[in-house]
Amino acid sequence: MLKVAASLNSLFASSLFTWRRGILIGARRSSRLVMLRSGCIQLLTATLVLLVMTACSGGGGSSNSAQSPTLTKQPANQAVTVGQTATFSVTATGTVPLTYQWFDNGTAIPGATSSTYTTAATVIADNNSQFTVTVSNAAGSTKSNPATLTTMIGLPAITTQPTSVNVCNSASITLSVVALNASTYQWSFNGSPIAGATSSSYFIASATATNAGSYTVTVTNAAGSVTSQAATVLVGTSITSNPVSLSIAQGQTATFSVAAAGDAPFSYQWYLIAPGGSTGVAIAGATSSTYTTPVEGLSSSGSQYYVSVTDACATILTSTSATITVTPGNVPPTITTPPVSQTVAIGSTPTLTVTAVGPPTLTYQWYRIPAGSNTGTAITGATAAAYTVLAADTTATNDHDAYYVIVSNSYGQATSPIAILVIGNGIQITKQPVTAYVSAGGSATFSVTATSALPLTYQWFEAAPGTSSFSAISGATSATYTQPSTATTDSGSVFHVVVSNGSSASVTSSPASLFVGALPAIGSLCSGWLPNGSALPPSASCTVQLTAATTFQSGQIVWPNLISTGNLQVSFTFTTSNSSPTPADGYTMTLADPSRGATTTSVGMDGGGLGAEGIPGVVVAFDDYHDLNDPPVPYVAVGRGEVSQWENPYFIVNTNVPPLATAAATVSHNYVVSIVQGMMTVTMDGLQLFSGSVNVPPVAYLYFTASTGDNFEQAVISNVSATVTAPSN
């Protein structure tokens, strides 16, 4: 440093330079000096440049050390599917602040002024675009290498599916789809391509019955194709399920039903053709989709029933006729008028009544279920067709006690639906929610009607398909809940509502389910059914052995998909053989309730449990061994599968049935179980065993079970067929 200083002093002393206000000025133009502020001089002569710059960098003098930007990470090439975004980034060093400007093919991108830039959703035209960035500061700027954007065509993505429609005859129809990355479209009808239907929408100018069916559209591009969900087109109205002929015993009622699809809402009128007649006469008041006859005698045999269905287009369709055959026989009682729920004052003495018919002599026993319980206790002395509740049993703590009556004769019993006593300010639900059947994308509405002396509040809950976990629906706090848009994945969901008034106990409604789109069918035994326990896989002839002729077996088969029970008919055959001297124990058809915990792997108890006890739901039991508290065997009955409610009570029992199993013999019976809006009818070998109201779960897994205990028989099920349709309201 001393030598540098000395050289400078000599330079200044040579009179080649002068100072003026802090600036060193060259005295001679020929010296080729460049003027710099703050006393720093750059000389073109190499020796002087070194000398002066060394002097400028010495301690004690002022300096300017700004560094131009340097890129330490260049933007990388990006490849994305059309419709996605691409992100480019750069890393730079240099004196701060640094500024950035991104360019697309040389054109500055407005607002792209950070070290990272993300494009908008890409399109095909973006392919091979070049992106660069210029980084700047006070000392200079630098430009990145170009990064290339490659856009690739992905599979088309359908964002809006075609929607099912119901239209009148001659109405126009437009089906449409919205898809990303679409190049071409092809519409199909019932699986076959429609000539010329190659746009995003398909138009039918004047629909006829030939246009009714299933429509899909296949969307294609260079990467492949995607097919939409099916949209069902219904043109006009069709009857999808006609009334079915029945054979009943004298003293029974017959229930007929119809199901229609198309231009709802529908109206109905049932007609009777008297035995030997040819002209139908309208039945007064028979204006719903189901009709239950009065108790029939032998003179009614040969009567025919049919129904006319009128749709929203004023089209009238007529069902086929169903005939009843009435035979002599002894059957269990039939309840024709059940007891009715009531709202009463504290300390009052309301009277509950039932009307039942059947071969004499009928006996009665009333039961009370305390509020919050599931099981009833016989009321001492309540053994007539009417029961007057004691004042001591209408206190505030008795709010929502439930009552039912069992009517019996020598051939079985019938249990009435429960009647609820609402005490004082309690809440009475007068109209329960109803299961909804909608097309995919449509809305679904559930509603409840309740009364109370106090203002009511509501909270709706939902359990996802196949689960028993109910969660409160946010904002669903009125008497009506509407789910604005539905998907097929919602099918089988269960809903209920809790009604409160801030004073008395809250009340939970009956469950209702949601079904979206076409209802799934139930397959034959050849494939799809799941065996549990001792059940063997299906044989080549599509039969399943549930139990072998050995002790303590429990076998079940289950259809693994959730089914609707609103309008259900199941036919099947059970065959027993190789029985021990005293056969045991029997078999069931079970509608397992997922909202109460049933799954596709639920297993019931063996022995007297018939392989079904312990599976939540409704059980149609065919029992051939008398356990403690059983009705006389053999019998066919309907009851609950929960352990606490097993045979406690059976809803309906018929003990006047032929043997279900016989030692050293093969016994086979054909059964049909039909459920129409809560009315269950069971036939055996073509003869109606009973018909009555049964509270079945709105959605269920279908089980067949059998078991043995200390005694045994081989039990085989075959000939399973079923129809599942949406009820007509």
From TrEMBL:
The identity of this protein, by name, is Ig-like domain-containing protein
Q: Which Gene3D superfamilies does the UniProt record give? A: Immunoglobulins
Question: Which source organism does the UniProt entry give?
Answer: Tunturiibacter gelidiferens
Q: Any one Gene Ontology biological process term?
A: synapse organization
Q: Which domain of life is it from?
A: Bacteria
Keyword tags: Disulfide bond, Signal
Query: Which Gene Ontology CC terms are recorded?
Result: plasma membrane
Query: Ig-like domain: from which residue to which, for each copy?
Result: 69-150, 333-421
**Ribosomal protein in keyword set:** no
